[in-house]
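REVIEWER CHECKLIST
Item 1: Sequence provided? yes
Item 2: Single chain? yes
Item 3: Sequence as submitted:
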Amino acid sequence: EPTVSRCTVELRMKFLGILYLYLRTIVDVSAQDYDFNAQIVGRNDSTLLDYDDLICLSCQCYKETSSSFFIDCNNLNLESLPDWLDELENVTDTMFLDLSFNAISEISSFPSIDVWNLDLSYNGLRTIKSEALLGVSQSVLQLDLSANKLDVTGLEEDCFKGVSDDENSTAFNVIDLSLARNRLHTVRPGLFKYFGKLVDLDLSENPLDPLTEEMIIELSSLSTLESVILRSTSLRFLPESLLAGLVNLKYLDLSGNRFTQVDPNLRLAPTLESLILDDNLISLLNQDSFQGLDNLRNLSLSNMHSLRSVEELTFKPVPNLQLLRISNNKQLAWISPDAWPTDSDQPLALKELDLSKNDLRYLPSMLLHDFQDWNSIDVIDIQDNPWECDCHNEWIISTLAPIIHDSHPELAQNILCGGPRGSALVKEEIIVIQQLTSVDQLPCDDKQFNPWLRNFNLPSQQMSSPPRPSKKSLPLALTLTCVFSIIATSMMVGVLYLQKSRRAGRRVLRRNPGAASARMGYVPTSNSGAETGRAAGGRYTDLPDRQQQTGVHNQHYLDDEGLEAGSPNENQLRRQTSHPFGRPTSEES
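Item 4: Structure as written out by the authors:
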């Protein structure tokens, strides 16, 4: 009883506490109204508009600046442009209008509103009618039509037509257009002729390969373009005429395509400053890879699982390179010590070097112009490589790893030893080894180490990584697997067939409890209509329809009523039921 009382008291105290908090919440809420001028968390200097009209009751409205605001109407299940957009025609403030993640499948006419950023992505949009965007052609600067279902027929002729500037031209003032993740293989002739100020164009994740003549002509006509994204479009090469017209191109993203080499036509874009070639089928880089790209400053060559080597003088044509990312290339095991020209008097411009997540075991100290150039690089990342912690890599342990640790300690955590194989140093942090181990304690051999050779003049058994499976063994393994699968399947089918045959041959005898001596057997029915559904001398007459149609039924009861011993009928039935599948005897015949 004391225990019950104590529990009751505790429950009452908890209930009173909850009731107190609830009443306090009611008092606090009723004591003050919502402050529409309060700061919105996560949005810089943005405040809620004090709107009472239909627009801000349906959408979220935010004040961006004194002369612009943000209307967020995403994910409202809208199937068409809302009628209340017409109310914004008289608004003089510029706005950001977000209509993404709805179900708007067609745009026939957009209201004439002052919107500088229009987001229509993720709508399942299929059709943009002719002159549909005429009302926003002079105000909109960023237009997002990505992640829809637009194809060459959905973008109707003059769908991007703008208001006439003069007697001879019409202008669509957008500078940033995204048509990514649609169904565009080609476009209508003249589709882009109204974009006289377009700077950024995103066509990624469209089935563009091979580029059609219409697409090439339309793209090359956009002389104002500075950024083009062609990511994941299945391209294998760039037509020569494509880049010839892009005289202001500075940024090009060709990642996720099927290039087997750095396309030589890239030299036709000498203004290029940033090039993304990630996730392609390129196997090596050499001195011809980047010819003509003198102005290149940012280069990314990551996630290329076929890349094996970086050859001599690869980076000689790009002396202004500032950011180089060669990461996550699982077969990249060798970089030539002469990848950069060592005889150049020009100072190294490189400020960020990413060599992480490759298969590098050794890194030559003479890779750059001068040994002191390693100190001039702001960010160096060499993590997640199977580095050999032996005397041939002594400079990484004693010099490079401490440089990285001093400038960016977080980038030194995963610089681990991958060898020598069987050594106690494997999987240890190199910066720890540098602090606890002297140089003369590092494993060493009597071989003449040569960084200019792909195998470094070391025996193959000394390499630390486990041997990779041979490509020739893969087809053999697949063939053997298929053969064993066929044999196992055949055996299983055979076993199932035998089981089925045994069940079909087995006849289950049944006894009639109402008869003195019941006889059972397989008795075919008569073909005559009068005997259909009844066996000769039998009582069982309710046969299934299927049996009545075929004229055959299996075990049923045969009574002895009306049959005398030794009668012809009895002998005939005995002979018929004794062995239903045997040959008839001479008497039967």
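Item 5: Key structural point noted by reviewer: The CA atoms of residues 166 and 194 lie 13 Å apart.
Item 6: Recommendation: ____
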